[in-house]
Amino acid sequence: MEIDIHDAAPEQKAGISAAGRDAHDELMRSFEEFKSSNDERLASLGRRADVLLEEKVDRINAALDTQMKRIDELALKSARPSLGGAPSRAIDSTAREHKSAFDAYVRAGETSGLKAIETKAMSAGSNPDGGYLVPNELEQEIGRRLAAISPIRAIASVREISGGVYKKPFMTAGPAAGWVGETDTRSQTTSPTLDALSFPAMELYAMPAATATLLDDSAVNIDEWIASEVELTFAVQEGAAFVSGDGSNKPKGFLSYDTVANGSWVWGKLGYIASGNAGAFPASNPSDVLIDLIYALKAGYRQNGSFVMNRKTQGAIRKFKDTGGGYLWQPPAQAGGRASLMTFPLVEAEDMPDIGANSLSIAFGDFKRGYLIVDRLGVRVLRDPYSAKPYVLFYTTKRVGGGVQDFDAIKLVKFAAS
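RESULT FIELD:
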C-alpha cells in the first residue's frame, strides 16, 4: 500500500558544529552496516538461526541509538543562544534596572532594588516568601531552552497566559450546512456543539545550588548559569507530565486520557489501532500496523503528522522494510536534522512506554493541533542561603499546564490482539 509523501524535509538546524557533522557521517556509515547485516539476517530466516548474526544486528542497532543520542546532544548545544553578549538596544531602562537588581539579589541577597521595581509595577505575589520575578530576557531564554530539549513541547502548541487557568471552547460538531438553489427554502440550521476545555497551570520547580565563590565571580553570567541549571530539571519533569501525567498538580499527559478502538472513536477519548499481537508487532507484515496508524488520522491532520516513541521502540522498527526492500526508518538527511519514519518526522520521547502487553508505545498525530501547553507568564527565584550551608539554593519556579485540545488529532498503537 502506498502512503502520502510528507512534503517537509527533515529539520535542519543552523550552526551545526564540525563535531556534529562528523557524528552524522559516522551515523550514516553505521546505518549502512546495519542495513547490510539486517538484510543478511532477513535472508537467513526460515533456515537455521544464526545467533552471531542476530547479536551483530542488535549490537549495531544499539550503536545507532548511541550515535543518535550524541547527535541530539550536539544539536542541542549548538541551538542554545548565549546570554553573555552585549545587551540589545531594544532593552529599555526599566528592563536594564530589573536585570541589575536581579543580579544583586542573586549574588548578595540584596532585595531593595527588586522591591522598588515591583512596587512601581504594582506586582502582587512576588515577595521574599514567594520569590522574585526573573528578568524577561532570562524567562525567554528558559523558554527557548525548554523548546529545544523537551520533545513534546517542540511539537505541541504553546500559549502564554497571565491567569491560573486557560479555558478554551472547542467546537465538537458544527452547525448544519448544505447547498441550495437561489430561490430554494432554507431550513433552520442546528446550533454548533461546544466543549469547554480547561488547562490549569501547575507549579514546576528546580533548586540549583551555588557556592559563594561562584556568586562572587563577576565574570560568571548569572542569567546563563540559572538557565543552564534549571533547563534539564524542567525538561525532564515536563516530558514525563506531557506524556503520562495524571493531571493532579501536573499537566495531563495524552496517554492518561481514555482510549478506545479507533473504529468506535468518540470525542473525549483517543483512538488506537491494535497491533494484532499482545505485547509485540505481528510476525508477518509488521509495518502494516504503522500504515493503519497513519491512515487512522484524517488527511487534514496527517499532513503535519509526527511519530512519537522512545528509543527502544524505534530500535525495533528500524529493522522493518517495505515491499520494495527499502527501510522505513531513515536517519537524519543532514547534521542537526531529525530521523524519519515512512517520510514523517520521528520524535524521541523516552517517557513513552516500552513495547509490552497492552502498552500504548507509539503515537502519531498533528500535535500542534492535538496537544496544548500553557505557560503562565513569570519565572520566580527565591534565594535560600540557610538550608544547605555553605551553599546557596535558588528555588526556581514556573507554572505550566497541558492537555489534549483536539481528540481527533492524535492516534495510538496499542500492542494487543484487539
